[in-house]
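Before a colleague's protein record goes any further, I have to sign it off. What it holds is a sequence and that sequence's fold in token form. My question to you is simply how this chain folds and whether the tokens agree. Thanks in advance; the entry in question is below:
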Amino acid sequence: MGSKIEINDTLKISKGRGFPEGLTLEGHVREPQASKAFLSMEFNFRNPDERLYHRPPTRVFLVEEMPDGKWLYWGNAEIISQTIDNSRTSGRYKIPKIY
């Protein structure tokens, strides 16, 4: 019998679920250095389903889920805290690396 909890190495979130609002592909292409302002900042996230993310010092990949369903890999994230409750996962993360 399997578990409902998935172990994940990818934090895939949309802007509505906790991806930083000010971090955009257009802005990053125009001025890549400006994206460094997001490094080491802490953000909240929430995802449906029960997921267990790797904890520091292990990184997880930071992926923005685009409105058209595509994935945009941004870099790495470190999960600071997480809670699994009522078939949802929420927590805090920081960004140590942007590609």
About this structure: The CA atoms of residues 8 and 62 lie 11 Å apart. The chain has a mean pLDDT of 93. The longest strand covers residues 71-85.
